[in-house]
Design brief:
The chain is of the alpha/beta class. It has a single domain, classed as Rossmann fold (3-Layer(aba) Sandwich), CATH 3.40.50. Helices cover about 35% and strands about 30% of the residues. The chain has a 5-stranded mixed β-barrel, surrounded by 4 helices. β3 and β4 form a beta hairpin. α2 runs parallel beside α5 and α3 crosses α6. The longest helix has 27 residues. The two termini are about 25 Å apart. Bound molecules: adenine. The site of adenine has 14 residues, from β5, β9, β10 and α6.
Amino acid sequence: MSPTPASTTPTAILSALLQEQQGLMELLHHPRKVTHAGRDFWLGDLHGRPVVLALSKIGKVAAATTATALIERFGVRRMVFTGVAGGVGAGVNVGDIVVASDFVQHDLDASPLFPRYEVPLYGRTRFDTDPALTALLFNAASEALAHGQASQAFPNARVHQGLIASGDRFVSGAGESRALHDALTGAGHPVLAVEMEGAAVAQVCLDYGVPFAAVRTISDRADDSAHVDFPKFVEEVASRYAHAIIERLLGRL
Ligand code: ADE
């Protein structure tokens, strides 16, 4: 069997929630749905590039299943996550964008057998994103913010690049958010944002050698009003951000 040409090998675009995926779905050309592993995968062309759109679902295990299916069943050549996150780093505000340089699991603790946060038997705590794909995504996000309508409501919004922490918790308390930030930063992991999937996808992509990049728009500050800010942001803003960024990324691939 001859190998599939690189130009027809799709890029996977993962989102956690339907609202985050909506803007991309509307622009998908020649859409074809494949249901696999209890998930709907949408194949088609987006801005002239072959893509598979998928919902990671929520939490690390669900996201790992989706990422594995994208690689094993659909043979994707790269994976990009677009979604929202809670800002925990100083100056990481609602409406800002964080492009992940790497990921850590804030709820992983196999101590005293292994150091706190280390993923057992991987000998590492942080999982890097792909530098080249991340650079393209950073440029795409910066341009989307500078020129896009997406950010009109947040005129002072900034793009950050750095560490994102994932865990199976929606962080919704100022005390919890501060404790999480301080514990990670104190252990040498200066975290900017928190979400529930990215570290799992990064680990799967490392296992398979698939380039991975991730961008998260800050929907809340993971504080006492996070549960109010999050759904409002997801409904009103997230899909516009995702679309503006991915459009520009695909044009650069
Ligand atoms: N995604 C968006 N906001 C979040 C939060 N506060 N905690 C976990 N995941 C999130």
